[in-house]
Design goal:
Layout (H helix, E strand, L loop, with lengths): L13 E6 L2 E6 L4 E3 L1 H7 L3 H14 L1 H26 L11 H11 L2 E13 L4 E11 L2 E9 L13 H15 L10 E7 L2 E8 L1 H21 L8
Parallel strand pairs: 6-7
Antiparallel strand pairs: 1-2, 2-3, 4-5, 5-6, 7-8
Helix pairs in contact: 2-3, 5-6
Amino acid sequence: MLTNDAQPLPVLSAKQRRQNGSQYYLDDRGALLPSVTTILNATRPAEQWNALAEWRQRVGVEEANRISSTASRRGTGTHKHVQRYLHGEAVTCPDGIRPYWDSILSVLQSIEDVRLIEAPVFHYELGYAGKVDCVASYQGVPCLCEWKTADRPKRSVDRLNDYPLQLVAYWGAVNHCYREYDVDLRHALLAIAVPDLPAEVFWFDAAAIKDYWQEWVDRVALFWRRLGGYGRWE
């Protein structure tokens, strides 16, 4: 049973914009900031691009596009149903989403005190923005939550690719945006729904977040240096 005794956080006003083929967020003051995904893609190491190119060549362009499109649709569909659940709405899943919903439900049943769902966040000091999945408590601990889907278990943090950087980016933006509301998250949750298995749960404590946070800050700095600078990075 989803409980919610915490005070909801106000949802910030923002619009998504495309610029040079990349995603940005425009706030109500006219600030236009790159999304977390835009920064990760623009600063991705060459070896990651090479590995992606080799995979596309190995499976074929058509099959690679099909796999990517399928993954995107299932991720979007799962997110929508998680969002409905967290809002207290009834959830009826289509067959294509059901295995992922069944996988992640046990994690959602440990979520309470939801304060923010699928909302834009900004980090004005560093210069980035994004949309956070959820701010709530997991097993009684306040945290930033991210929901993902996969065909098979990751089993190790080392196989999460950029997920931890994405996670801490949103974590940092939430703490930055909502300081006036006494928000000081020190933990983050990454839950990955896998068909026919319980969702994988990766729990990031303050020490783990600190390590990934520095790597993320470096990626943001690199992004802005390549564009000529932003604020403190000029």
